[in-house]
Amino acid sequence: MPLSKPALSLGSGARGVQDARKWVTDTFHDIDRDDLVECAEMAVSEVVTNALLHGAPPIQVRVRGTREHPRVEVSDGSVEPPALPDLPGHSVGSAADDDSHDLLGLDDLDDLDLDGVEDMLLTFGRGLSIVARAADAWGAEIEPDGKTVWFTPAPDFSDLGSEGVITGAPDLGVTTGELPVDPVELHLLGTPTRDYISFHNHFRELRREVRLLALANEDDYPLARDLAEVFHQLGRPFTHDGVRRTVDRAAAEGRSTTDLDVVMARSDARDVARLVELLDLTDAFAREERMLALARTPRQVAFQSWFLGELVRQAEGDPPRAWREPSAPQAGQSVPSAVERRSIVS
Fold first, then answer.
1. Tens-place pLDDT, residues 100-142
2. In DSSP terms, which residues pair with 13 in a beta bridge?
3. Among candidate residues 140, 171, 202, the one where a domain is terminated
4. In terms of domains, do 211 and 338 share one?
5. 301 is in which domain, residue-wise?
6. Element (H or E) spanning 96, and its range?
7. 0.85 exceeded by the pTM?
8. For the chain, how big is the Rg over CA atoms in Å?
């Protein structure tokens, strides 16, 4: 069963760490994963402390994934990746403990007046080495508007710890100005701004979900790594930050539609047909509750079929066709058969 409990927003200071610990432990009790509570509680304390000290608001904590494979995520508004600890033998405590005083805003521990703060201080300053020892897998996902540090809690603490992985950094919207090989300029005429924003957000979340599944639970989701790679390769040009800014500007000006120009390698534009199939496949997984992302609505299917279909058509030399509002609700696209599913990632 996918976990979709709303995120908890955190305030500044030690109270944010305390709130996060209680919220995460309550959530793991609610899903009957008491075996993971101790490691989840310790690791989330460290991640939230790190976000409060070195990140930027807004700061939120979520539990994602499934009951079988729960994942704790702490997001903040900074794109600065965390410093990965040296493993094994990373020192615990030491001078980093001074940061806890800064977080609490106090010079004298006698001034503390928070329930349970002594318990919290036991974890302050230990850094992400604690997360490494308390998690089967963990890392940071960097996006243009912030980062998410995630971990899958382990049943028991490890002496050696697991190695963290930082992903997403190449997707920050930085371009070299170089054109792709055999470029083709594609024109998306009359793109509805709200539908594009919905598509952009859905695609980023879906790409992120399969990437984290590949990192944390590849044995249980063998297609996840292939899906993540295809999403990364084919999705960057039309979900680029510059394209999103064009749409946001149109929306801010009160325009319901805008024309978009996208430059892609012709071969990549043709390969977008594969992406259409993959989106159908992820819809099937979502309906079977095998992944967190929700299946698309009929309107999302209609818009994405037009948008992605235009990339394929125009790459073959066909003229642009503007978006037309569907006259009636669109039926969802057919779910690929088992044979088709295997061929998608072959």
1. 434 444 333 344 334 444 444 344 434 688 899 999 989 998 8
2. none
3. 171
4. yes
5. 183-344
6. none
7. no
8. 22
